[in-house]
Amino acid sequence: TYVFSQSKNLSLKISKFNENYKFKNTLQKDFIYKDKCKKNIVIFPSGQFDFKIWPYYKPLIISLLKNHFINIYVIAAKEKELDSYKDLVNYENFFLNHSMNLYDVQKKISNSDLVITNDSGPKHLTTLCSQKHISIDGYFSSWSTVSYCNSCISIFSPGYEARTFFSTNSRFKSLQEISPEFVYFLVNSFLSD
Length: 193
Prior knowledge:
Blueprint: E1 2-5, H1 8-20, E2 39-44, H2 57-65, E3 70-76, E4 94-98, H3 102-110, E5 114-117, H4 120-128, E6 133-140, E7 152-161, H5 168-176, H6 180-192
Parallel strand pairs: 2-3, 2-5, 3-4, 5-6, 6-7
Antiparallel strand pairs: 1-7
Helix pairs in contact: 1-6, 2-6
């Protein structure tokens, strides 16, 4: 897994992570923040096509929920897209949102500390709101969000080159190779800056 970012500070943290952690199999509570305020993370775990959806949102969310100072807002267009997350509603820092109008989605994004998504619509809206976000792209494409956004990092899997933007097989395989541990580390890095 590798990341493209226009931030030198974040790139240095990623290389240090690769050297020291070697992608442990367990997600750790290692968040250290300059302030002790609640952090709000907005996650868009769905997409127009199944092959574009990163399959590890739930393990990532469960690990993040263990940190009581993080609020997680999961947003999807349709209620049925949130079915696999309904068992998490007992956490006091977890919120499901669906069928929201564009204005309300924009407010949620603008009030967040970080947005995580693999779908291009939320990526573009987050960019317009000038908010930090992690774009789980799978493979590199000239359409990748990081190519036009300074507050975004894009996560890619090595060895995948798409012939077109909609290379379904490459996208599906490459997304499966991005571990929740790696994304967890990036969330930590983004929120601790």
